[in-house]
From TrEMBL:
Protein name (database record): Aminopeptidase DmpA. Serine peptidase. MEROPS family S58
The keyword Protease is assigned to this record: yes
Pfam family, one: Peptidase_S58
Molecular function per GO: aminopeptidase activity
Length: 364
């Protein structure tokens, strides 16, 4: 397995301390992974802060690049512009179970939910991991979601973990990836932007990594499956989560979410007909109270004229996170013996002494 530090740095903005979404203060990530024969799946949770997100909501907005997806909770986010649960990622058929777990979690913390308090809006994103995972088992339970929440921390494991366990990308092993960038908007003002992706999309001939069109070369290396991969339409998905500590409102956050599409496109995605490509951005700069008897925040929003650096940070951290997802994944064999090779295994003979994404003269 090649190490992260050998990968090219996307763009010219500096990365955060961990080069992860958790460089945005307060954000934590947890996984629970199921890896047993035909069951190759899991749950990943992103917590926006350590408190109760139902009582102290964070501003958020989503952008649907291509809507071939079965997510829960986007309609209310579009209307109200806030998150009120952790963000959960899982496989397509496990969305109802995880949404139920989020509702029960909220009721446990707030017994009057749906009574004297409003109902809660669960937020679950999905990708179809059915090639490697027996998705009909519907193996994910409420307890798995709670365990992912309990595991949430600042160190983020990448690749074939959590919701990423059974995911495929560009005909290779996909999964979870994360990255961050620091953006200076004025001489003395800098903000952090972090991205986390669930990569389950793409056609191998179209793969571009750090500006290098590697897809055709990699398809040659996978000669036994090259023909079928080339003919297969794009029908995967990717979930793109963006966090920032910049003080932005929901309108501005939707603009950030849209820029995740720029980073996605650089990797060779065309947002294909059967691909569910959804981005969500949220800010940790302030919270919005659930109850009307609590004061609303008085935070001054960042001026739109200063937002371009954040747009760049979103695009670059998204592209970097996708590279990390591919690079960090390990090969997985799952349902009916289906197998996905990892990118790092496919490029095992590419030396660290040259550009890590440029083959040596001896490479085929």
């Amino acid at each position: 397995m090649m190490h992260r530090h050998l990968l090219p740095h996307i763009g010219n903005l500096p990365q955060g301390l961990r080069n992860a979404i958790t460089d945005v203060a307060g954000v934590t990530v947890g996984h629970h992974t199921l890896a047993a024969q035909d069951v190759q799946t899991g749950v990943t949770v992103v917590r926006p802060h350590a408190g109760d997100p139902f009582r102290d909501r964070v501003p958020a907005a989503a952008a649907v690049l291509n809507g071939f997806g079965k997510s829960v909770g986007l309609l209310q986010i579009e209307e109200l512009g806030v998150l009120e649960t952790p963000i959960a990622l899982t496989n397509t058929f496990s969305v109802p179970a995880v949404a139920t777990a989020q509702i029960r979690q909220c009721m446990a913390a707030n017994p009057e939910t749906g009574r004297s308090l409003p109902t809660v809006n669960p937020l679950v994103f999905e990708c179809n991991d059915g090639f490697l995972n027996d998705i009909q088992r519907m193996a994910i339970t409420e307890q798995h979601y709670l365990q992912a929440c309990a595991q949430a921390g600042v160190d983020v494991e990448e690749g074939s973990v959590g919701a990423g366990r059974g995911m495929s990308s560009f005909g290779l092993k996909g999964g979870i990836g994360t990255a961050s960038r620091r953006a200076r908007v004025m001489a003395n003002t800098e903000y952090t932007v972090g991205a986390l992706v669930l990569a389950n999309y793409g056609r191998l001939p179209q793969l571009v990594l750090a500006g290098h069109a590697l897809g055709p070369q990699l398809a040659t290396r996978l000669a036994t499956s090259q023909k079928s991969l080339a003919a297969e339409p794009e029908k995967g998905s990717i979930i793109l989560l963006i966090a920032t500590d910049a003080p932005l409102d929901a309108r501005q956050l939707r603009r950030l979410a849209l820029r995740a599409g720029a980073g996605l496109a650089r990797t060779g995605s065309v947002f294909g007909h059967g691909s569910g490509d959804i981005a969500l951005a949220f800010s940790t700069a302030y919270t919005v109270p659930q109850q009307s008897n609590r004061p609303m925040p008085t935070t001054a929003m960042l001026h739109d004229g200063l937002i371009d650096a954040l747009f760049q940070a979103v695009s670059d951290s998204t592209e970097q996170a996708i590279i990390h997802a591919l690079w960090g994944a390990c090969a997985v064999t799952g349902r009916d013996g289906h197998h996905r090779i990892a990118l790092a295994d496919l490029l095992h003979d590419w030396p660290a002494t040259s550009h890590p994404l440029t083959p040596s003269a001896s490479s085929s």
